[in-house]
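Re: weekly structure request thread

Next one in the queue (200 aa):
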Amino acid sequence: MEKEVTDKLELLIKEQEERIPQLKKNDSYLIIYHYEDEDSYINWVEEVKRFLEVYFPKDKHIADFEKFADKERIGGLSPQGQKRLLAILKAFREHPVVVEKTNHDKSTSGININTNISNTNTQSQQQSQQQSIEILIKALEDQLSVSQLKEIKQVVEEAKGDLEKAKPKLIDKIKSFGENVTSNILANIITNPAIWALLG
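Done, posted below.
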C-alpha cells in the first residue's frame, strides 16, 4: 500500500481512537450516547466512506462499515458500535488487499437469484431481529444493576428454563425493583429510533 494511503488510514484510525473515550451519556432519564462535537464525527464517517471507496474500490467490507455507520445513526450511538466501526477500519489497515464480492456463473444465475433473494430476506429478518434483541438487552443493562440481572436469571433457572412458568415470578421480580425502573426500561425501548419508526 502506498505510504500516503497508509498515513491517511492511520490518521482516520487515530481520530476515532481519540474520539471514542469522549462518548458521553445524555443526562436525561433516557440513556443515549453522544459526542460534544457531533459534526466532526459525522465528517469522519463520511470521510472514511469516501476514503474506502477511493482506495479499496469494490471491497465487500465497505458495505459492513456503511451498515454499522447507518445502524449507529438510526439506533443511536453506542460504545460497542463505535468500536465496531474502528475495528472495520483497522482491518483495512492490517489486510489492505481488496476483497471483492464474488460473481456467480451465468449458467446458474436463475437459481442463484432465487437463492440470493431468499438469503437476503432471511438475513434482513435476522438483522432486524438481532437489532430488536440488542435494543431490549441495552434497555435492561442500562436500567438494571448486575445483581438485579442475576436475580432475574435466577428466577428463570428456578423454573428450569420454562419461560411461561417463570413469567409471573419475573413480573413480580421486576416490579420489586421499583416502578421507576420498569417505566424507564419501557421508555428506553419505545423511544429507541428503530422501535419508534415501527410504531409510527
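The chain has nine helices and two strands. The mean pLDDT is 79.
Next request, please.
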